[in-house]
Design goal:
By secondary structure, this protein is of the alpha/beta class. It contains nine helices and ten strands. This is NAD(P)-binding protein.
């Protein structure tokens, strides 16, 4: 199936989110028309004002509750592609089965049910998460698309109302992606569109929202917190810059020191532990992605936060 090219119309669900705003921005800059789903008119108008330089290229559809059957019926009308990012990511993962798991899984199912009879949509991109791949393993594991977080699925099935928020989030992302692929495999012969899923890890980078999100606060806190010497320079884990989605870690301290902020500690040690790695070759081969370094991502995040402070 050919790629969906500008000036096609793209639906971005949860359009006022951290990642979604960057998606909307890049799509508009590339010449696409964009429709975003939001939970209220005030949020939709805020996005329209933010991207007012693109005129009528952006519009929005109000979806107050993604768990309701038919919630996306109106939003999908006349679009050529759908990028599904709407899913709860609560601060500090505080929440319940009803507020974390149910919206993620049922919201995905409802969207796909709405899309089943679409005659215009050619591609659906579901934003999953690296946590949907996590599982017990020996050090030095290479993650691939064959990995699934079966443990999280098992736990939420056994005791859905007794799990902590973080485990509910892991299960929600795992089971929502499974639901997407199950739907696609069962109906693909009668669908006009293809399904693609992306599994980004921790997302860093400059924010476009008015207030910092969890990842931006994490960057700020870690950059300005003095740690014991044996903890400085520890492996950052898997992460992605919000502007291009990737894994790579290097030069963090050089980039932070370039900001010339005395409060940022400048000591570091090398972490020699065996690391897990993700196999990103498919994304590189098919999409031709090039990636920002963690240092650049951290630097730009802090710079954006500092600029917001000076504007208050």
């Amino acid at each position: 199936m050919p790629s969906v090219l500008p000036p096609s119309k793209v639906l971005v669900t949860g359009a006022n989110g951290f990642l979604a705003l960057h998606i909307v921005k890049q799509l508009l800059e590339q010449g696409y028309s964009v429709r975003g789903t939001v939970r209220s008119a005030s949020k939709g108008e805020w996005i329209k004002i933010k991207f007012s330089s693109f005129g009528t290229k952006f519009d929005y559809s109000i979806v107050e509750d993604i768990t309701k059957e038919g919630a996306f019926d109106d939003a999908i009308k006349g679009v050529d592609a759908v990028l599904h990012t709407a899913s709860p990511v609560p601060d500090n993962f505080v929440g319940t089965y009803e507020t974390i798991y149910v919206p993620a899984v049922n919201g995905t199912r409802n969207l796909l049910n709405s899309l089943q009879s679409s005659q215009t949509v050619q591609r659906v991109v579901y934003t999953s998460s690296f946590v949907a791949m996590m599982k017990p393993h020996a050090p030095g594991w290479t993650y691939s698309e064959a990995d699934w977080n079966d443990n999280a699925s098992k736990l939420v099935n056994e005791r859905p109302h007794k799990l902590p928020g973080i485990m509910l989030y892991l299960a929600a992302k795992t089971d929502a992606e499974r639901a997407a692929w199950k739907f696609y495999q069962e109906h693909k012969d009668n669908l006009k569109w293809e399904l693609v899923t992306l599994t980004p890890p921790y997302i860093f980078g400059p924010i476009l929202q008015n207030t910092p999100n969890g990842s931006a606060n994490t960057i700020w806190r870690k950059a300005f917190t003095q740690k014991p010497a044996d903890q400085v320079g520890q492996h950052a884990g898997f992460w992605i810059d919000v502007r291009d989605c990737a894994f790579k870690w290097q030069d963090v301290y050089d980039e932070l020191q370039s900001l010339n902020i005395p409060e940022i500690p400048n000591d570091r040690v090398e972490d020699g532990d065996v690391k897990d790695v993700p196999n990103t070759s498919k994304a590189t081969r098919i999409l031709g992605l090039t990636y920002r370094s963690l240092g650049e991502s951290v630097r730009d995040t802090i710079t954006a936060l500092l600029e917001r402070e000076t504007q208050k």
